[in-house]
Structures are given as structure tokens and as C-alpha cells.
Design goal:
- With 275 residues, the chain is α+β, with helices and mostly antiparallel strands.
- The chain folds into two domains: 114 residues, Aminopeptidase, CATH 3.40.630; 112 residues, Aminopeptidase, CATH 3.40.630.
- The chain is built from eight helices and eleven strands.
- Strands 1-2-3-4-11-5-10-9-8-7-6 form an eleven-stranded mixed sheet, sandwiched between helices.
């Protein structure tokens, strides 16, 4: 399998490929013209996603209305992935015109494993979040402003997802949790998806992110993966990874629709990422 094919199947899967990746709390809606998943956390956009649509240009507005109606019945926030292969080619502009929030402008990057030359901070202690205490540390790094009540549902969801395929890790410096990262192993593709990573502002430029990339890719290689792929933010992670052997295979934009927009008088706000 080529790097390009692995990335396509990872980020824009068929319904049969997507269903085994989801847990019992997620509903998959699969039709000839669209594929989306509705997760258990209604207020968290990254719990639910539109993976792809296949519409003609004159079907887009009705299609967008249809997608919004699906999520409106649940008052569910969601993200919508648009790539160079999305149809029609005007979809990105149509979503912007419909007031979707551009949450992440990224590039699809892929690399063969192992990856050489990643900067590693040897003082960083990386531990996998296999218990609630470590998962709480991870959420505190990812969302420093969240209180326990807001973090609770995400912690429960992540603890439920932990297993053979989905993982999280926390990086510690000076006895403090300073970085976190997540990844998913796609055993059918022999590939690892780097889901997301965060570093506390005061610890950036100290090799925390690069060390977490190295940890995840080395761990995945031990699990039999030969490919790593990520939708990397053009402002932050993409430049780092492109200098370390990742190949750019196309543009990817995540648009966001917050649950508050389904409330008659709710404010339009961007919610924190909860991938």
C-alpha cells in the first residue's frame, strides 16, 4: 500500500472501514453521498465528524442543509473535513459562505516508519495515560482552563476508548505535566494516525512536541506499523514534520459548527478542540 493510499483510507474511509474504528457510543451515518459519525459528547465538536460528501455542484446547498438537520435533532456540535478530493471543489467556499468556522487549516502529511532525525528531549519523561490520573494530567495540558466538571465527560469518554487501537500519552518535565499527545493504530493499514498534541506555552521550543512524535511513531513501529500520517496545522506542527521527512500529500481543512448554533438565542462561539 502506498503512502497516499494509506492516508486516503485513514482520513476518508469507507463506511466498512470506519465502523470498526468507532465505539458503541458512536453512530455512523453512511449513504452513497456522505459519511459521518455522531459521537457521545454533544458539546464537543471533535466527538462528531463529517468525513466526506459526494455531491454535484447544484446539490451542495441542500446537502449542507441535510447535514445540519442530522446534527440539529441532537443539538450536536461537529467538525467537517474538507480535502482536495472533496466534491464538489467549491465545498470549502460554500461552507465558509454558510458561516462555518475554519477551525484548522492543515496539510495531510505521511511518512514511512521508522522516522530518523526527530529532536528528542531526554529529560522529558513520557508515560502512557492508562489510568484516570494520567488522563486528567493530559486534559489539564490540552485544556488548561477547564474545570473538573467540564473535563469529566471527556475523561470518561477517553477512558472508555483506551484499548488496542487508541492511545494517549503525557510528557513530564520538572515533575509537571507539560505535553500530551494521542494516536490511533490502524492495524488493517499497518499505519498510525497522529491525532493531536499540545504543549504548555512555557515549555515550547524545548523539544516536547518532537519527543512526543518520536514516542508515538516508535511505539507504532513496534506494533507493526510501517506508515505514519497526520493532518498537521500549517501554523505549528506541519513545518516541524516537513523538516523531518514527512511528505505533503494535500490540503485538509476542518470546519466547525458549535452546538450553541442550534439554540434559538445561543451565542456563536468556537469551542476548544477535544480530539
Amino acid at each position: 500500500m502506498s503512502l497516499h493510499e494509506a492516508a486516503d483510507r485513514m482520513f476518508q474511509p469507507t463506511a466498512d472501514e470506519l465502523r470498526p474504528r468507532t465505539d458503541a457510543g458512536t453512530e455512523v451515518v453512511a449513504r452513497d453521498d456522505l459519511l459521518l459519525a455522531i459521537g457521545p459528547l454533544a458539546q464537543q465538536p471533535w466527538s462528531s465528524q463529517v468525513y466526506w460528501t459526494r455531491w454535484a455542484a447544484d446539490q451542495v446547498e441542500a446537502g449542507i442543509d441535510d447535514v445540519l438537520a442530522i446534527f440539529r435533532t441532537r443539538r450536536q456540535a461537529f467538525v467537517w473535513l474538507v480535502t482536495d478530493k472533496s466534491t464538489p471543489t467549491s465545498l470549502r467556499e460554500r461552507l465558509i459562505a454558510r458561516d462555518f468556522i475554519t477551525e484548522l487549516e492543515g496539510r495531510i502529511l505521511v511518512a514511512s516508519l521508522p522516522i530518523l532525525g526527530l529532536r528528542v528531549n531526554r529529560a522529558l519523561r513520557i508515560e502512557e495515560a492508562t489510568d484516570r490520573s494520567r488522563m486528567e494530567d493530559a486534559l489539564r495540558v490540552e485544556h488548561p482552563s477547564w474545570d473538573a466538571g467540564r473535563a469529566g465527560p471527556s475523561i470518561e469518554d477517553r477512558m472508555r476508548r483506551l484499548g488496542a487501537d487508541w492511545h494517549a500519552a503525557v510528557g513530564y518535565l520538572d515533575g509537571h505535566a507539560v505535553g500530551t499527545a494521542r494516536w490511533r493504530v490502524h492495524s488493517d493499514l499497518r499505519a498510525v494516525e497522529l491525532n493531536g498534541a499540545e504543549t504548555l506555552p512555557g515549555y515550547r521550543r524545548r523539544g516536547v512536541y518532537s519527543s512526543l512524535v518520536a514516542y508515538r511513531t516508535e511505539r507504532a513501529a513496534k506494533d507493526g506499523c510501517t506508515v505514519a500520517a497526520i493532518i498537521a496545522d500549517v501554523r505549528t506542527s506541519a513545518p516541524i514534520l516537513l523538516r523531518r521527512g514527512f511528505e505533503d500529500v494535500g490540503r485538509a481543512t476542518f470546519f466547525l459548527w458549535p452546538a450553541s448554533r442550534f439554540e434559538p438565542t445561543g451565542p456563536r462561539t468556537t469551542l476548544p478542540r477535544a480530539s
